[in-house]
Amino acid sequence: MNKSELIDAMAASAGITKAAAKLALESFLSNVEGTLQKGGRVSLVGFGSWSVSKRAARDGRNPQTGKTIKIAAKNVVKFKAGAELEGAVNK
């Protein structure tokens, strides 16, 4: 399912217009992104939670040449599925 299909599904199931569903989805995504940028955590009980963890700088290897390369440190977004979501997927 892509973004436009999700918007269509949200509009149909909630009985709202596609424009309202698009606005709601974009607001949700914007708020999740903003919270994660500040180092916060977003948790939806039963669905899952998003958080940010720091990945340290490290040495890696170029698989084509075998040369050692430096991989920079960066922040990584993590998602942990909630119990209800896992249960629904594993029925």
From TrEMBL:
Gene Ontology terms, MF aspect: DNA binding; structural constituent of chromatin
Keywords assigned by UniProt, alphabetized: DNA condensation, DNA-binding
Classification via SUPFAM superfamilies: IHF-like DNA-binding proteins
Cellular compartments per GO CC: cytosol
Pfam families to which the protein is assigned, alphabetical: Bac_DNA_binding
Gene3D superfamilies per record: IHF-like DNA-binding proteins (4.10.520.10)
GO BP, sorted A to Z: chromosome condensation
Family, as annotated: Belongs to the bacterial histone-like protein family.
Name of the molecule in the record: DNA-binding protein HU-beta
